[in-house]
Amino acid sequence: MPDPMSRKRHMNKVLDRWENEGGKSAPQTSPSTSISSDHKPQTTHHMKIVPHKRELTNANTLHHTQNDLAAQTRTSMIPILNARLADTIDLLHQAKQAHWNVKGRNFIALHKLFDEIAEAADEHMDLIAERAVQLGGIAEGTIQLSARRSELEPYPLDISDEQDHVAAMSAALAAYGKRVRQAIDQSDDLADKDTADMFTEISRAADKHLWFVESHLDRESHPARRRKAN
Ligand SMILES: [Fe+2]
């Protein structure tokens, strides 16, 4: 019986291989199946795989649709959509965290701006989830799964000052925008122009909100300003 660490290492290798192949077919594993070191699957009811951030999607669950996009394209797009769905759900709640807790001279402006970001994330969450289902997939958008899968840094819980929230929210928006932009390229490469267009719309909104938030950065504490001063 392999030790739990070697099983985990093997699972990570399987996931890496699968991701490097673009998630073209689901890896031959499931939560109820373990793989021994000699690669022979062993059924066990004891094994519990708890992947971090790279949880398997229902990539091989493709519902019938008359949508004329190739099944291979749709199968590959669904995990990408679900990955960005997790980020979007995380961003939504990060913006709410900032909306509720921000304090400072610009309270009202930032309180409203952070709520606007949460509302946009709410709309984008719906767009992304429904696109996954339109392609024949399953939208995987529970809070518990999103918390495990999100690629955003955790939002700090011990800040109140508006400049700290401005810095934290702009970092979250920048990281989010970067991943959405990667998803545009991935959709393009897979010849799914509609999803590429949807992600383009979302990244444009993220960039706009990043601009709005960064405009509140205290000029004296702005990193570029500090660099100049040194
Ligand atoms: Fe509110």
Structure description:
The protein has 230 residues and is mainly alpha-helical. The protein folds into 2 domains: 4-43, no CATH class; 71-229, Ferritin. Helix content is 61%, strand content 3%. The protein has 7 helices and 2 strands; from the N terminus they run αββαααααα. The chain has helices at residues 4-20, 71-101, 107-134, 143-149, 162-189, 193-214, 223-229; strands at 33-35, 41-43. Strands 1-2 form a two-stranded antiparallel sheet. β1 and β2 (41-43) form a beta hairpin. The longest helix is centred in the middle third of the chain and has 31 residues, at 71-101. 31% of the residues are buried. Fe (ii) ion (FE2) binds at residues 99, 115.
The name of the CATH architecture of the largest domain is Up-down Bundle
Strand and helix order: HEEHHHHHH
Question: What is the CATH superfamily label of the largest domain?
Answer: Ferritin, core subunit, four-helix bundle
Whole-number tally of structural domains: 2
**Could you tell me which ligands this complex binds, including any ions or cofactors?**
fe (ii) ion
The residue-averaged pLDDT reads 81
Radius of gyration: 20 Å
Structural class based on helices, strands and sheet pairing: mainly alpha
The CATH topology of the largest domain is Ferritin
Task: Give the biggest sheet.
Answer: 2 strands, antiparallel
Report the span from N to C terminus: 59 Å
Strand order of the largest sheet: 1-2
The total of helices stands at: 7
- Overall geometry: elongated
Q: Report helical residue fraction.
A: 55-70%
Strand content: under 5%
Instruction: Give the low-pLDDT segments.
Output: 1-5, 18-54
